[in-house]
Structure prediction request, 209 residues.
Amino acid sequence: MVHESHRHDHDKGFLAEVRWLRKIRTFWQTDLNRAIVELAAPGPGERGLDVGAGMGAATVLAAKRGAHVVAVEPGGTMRLVCRLRRLFQRARRRIVVEPGVAEDLPLSGDSTEVLWAGNAMHHWVDHEAAFAEFARVLSPGGRLVLVDEDYDDPEHPKHAEFAGHEAEMTPVDVAVVATTMRAVGLEATGSHQKVAGVPAKVIRAVKPG
Ligand SMILES: C[S@@+](CC[C@H](N)C(=O)[O-])C[C@H]1O[C@@H](n2cnc3c(N)ncnc32)[C@H](O)[C@@H]1O
Prediction:
């Protein structure tokens, strides 16, 4: 079930999604998504979860590696694109596209070995609820990787364009995120590092076995 209260205003509505669609060539596949999938390393037969999957860039890469992937995405237009894209994948039987939000995932407990999210953390309006959901759906020993590009870092090539963009969204402080995750029982670390050559905020965590 999707709670409207768990969505930022800019995620609601057709117009916001059309804005994303205009950038389809940029977001169809990105180096960042390739790098996220490398970091998460979903293996053959593993059950993966792409939170805020968008057009499914990371989802299809993970499925190509042999993982079974649930792509959770609140935006109806994004889901439609993701579903159409799925049809053209050899690995389509390993991909399921579901409506939902990080704060209220449409998955049962202990159902996921590996979870990832790209440029999505700052969209989640309730980090405590989201991380409690991650702790619930991950199986014992399961892992997660969250990566948000750090546009506030002057070294980011799009710093001038996007610095401060989190101001109207959910600010992401890696230390706070890691602490919030530890409070729900995940062994989490947060760091600033380059991912696919750009500064990024990276959270990694494991659910104790
Ligand atoms: C910047 S896009 C990134 C999409 C994709 N991960 C990628 O890297 O191409 C952020 C995505 O998060 C989704 N989103 C927004 N609020 C969300 C929430 N509360 N839970 C899960 N996803 C959300 C948006 O609909 C959007 O598709």
User: Anything to note?
Assistant: Confidence is low (pLDDT under 50) at residues 1-5. The pocket of S-adenosylmethionine is lined by residues 6-8, 11, 27, 33, 51-55, 57, 73-75, 78, 101-103, 118-120, 123-124 (CB under 6 Å). The longest strand covers residues 138-149. Residues 4-206 form a domain with the Rossmann fold fold (CATH 3.40.50.150).
